[in-house]
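Researcher: I'm preparing a figure for a lab meeting and need a structural model of a single chain. I don't have an experimental structure, so a prediction will have to do for now. The sequence is pasted below. Please return the structure as C-alpha cells so I can convert it later.
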Amino acid sequence: MITRIREVRRARGLTLGDVARRCEPATTPQTIGRLETGTRTVSVGWLNRIAKALGVEAQDLVEGGEAAELKVAAILGSGGAMAPRKTAIVVPPRVDDKQIAVLVAGSVGDYRSGDEIWCETLAAEDYARAVNRDVLVPRPADRFMFGRLINRDDKKLQILPLEAGGRQQVVANPPWLGVAVKLVRAL
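Model: Understood. Here is the structure written out cell by cell.
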C-alpha cells in the first residue's frame, strides 16, 4: 500500500516528533518515519492513529483514495508570490465532535461580518491552554460571551471583550469553553 503520510505531515507543518507525540498512545519519531517510507508495514490501526494525529481522514493518507486536498500554486512572502520549489498540498481540516463554530454577523474586533470561527471545546482542566486566545464561554439561559481569555484561576475566568473600551468580565468556571483555532473568511 502506498501512503501519503509524509506529504500530509509536511502539508500540516509537523515534524516526525510532533506526529509521534500526537498519536494515541504516543510512539517514536523513528516509527513514524519507518511508516512513511514503507520500511514498516502500515496497518489499518496505524493509518487510523496517524490520521487522527494529523487531523485528517485515514483515506487522505492512502494513495489513490478519495483525498480532499488543494494543490499549492504559489507561496506568498515579502518578495511577492513565487512558485513552490517542490509540489505541495494543503489538506482541509477534519471536523470532529469537539469542534463548534461561531458565525460573525457584524464586524467586531479583528472579525468581519461573514467570518466563521472554528473552535475546539475544552474541559475545565484544559482551560490554561486557552489563555491569551479568543474563546466562546457559555452563560446561563442559552447566552454566550466571546472575548480574549486573559486570566484563569481555580474559581473564575477573566474575559476581555473584543470591542474597544470594553470592560473585563469575570465568569465562574463554566463546564466547557471553545477556543478559537481557525478563521474561515470569504474574500
